[in-house]
Amino acid sequence: MPQTGVTVQAGGVVYNVIMLKAMRSWQTAIFRFVGIESAMKWVEKYDETAWTTDDSIWTEGVADKATLIDFLKQVNVLGDIYDATGFCRETPLESSSMDLGIKAIIQRPSEGATMFTVPSEILRYPWFSQDAGASTFDDTESPKRFRFTRIDLAPQLDDYNCGVFVLLFIDLQLYGVQVTGLDSESLSREAMEFFRYRHLSLILASM
């Protein structure tokens, strides 16, 4: 049966397929309007003085609270840009929010940069020592080596900020600078909230 031949009657009103699909979008829009309001409240409560840095590179392009709220009011609630509101909650970042954050990051450096990454979906099982009955890992027999970079930052105190740490690592690789003022464990949460605010600002400014 073609879709044009399907109708639903409820409360004396007949709805065709086109109207039913539109109603589904309405439901999504209403739900997301609530999300936008929550995001604006998060921005209003954000304390700009809780954590600061002397490096202007991290504050460059970051909107003030009034401007950021205006950006949120302009968000297309049915578009992908809505996922930027994931930075306004104390929850782990979804992959869609991470994608928006990475896109905003790589658009900023004036010069080209290359990063080598290993997708998380790739599993590489290690070689084990034959003499140990495959019970002890022997890294000397591993057939491959991956280059890696280690950066010492503040401890991650909240599991929901792991995505922010990943984005910060990418930022550090592209800019080639360290973050001053992030050497205190007591300020780790405030710093991550700053970077959540920063990523939200950069994403929405690129709309």
From TrEMBL:
Belongs to the peptidase C48 family. Residues 142-197 form the Ubiquitin-like protease family profile domain. GO terms for biological process: proteolysis. InterPro entries: Papain-like_cys_pep_sf (IPR038765), Peptidase_C48_C (IPR003653). Keywords: Hydrolase, Protease. It comes from Phytophthora nicotianae P1976. This is Ubiquitin-like protease family profile domain-containing protein. SUPFAM superfamilies: Cysteine proteinases. It comes from the Eukaryota. GO terms for molecular function: cysteine-type peptidase activity.
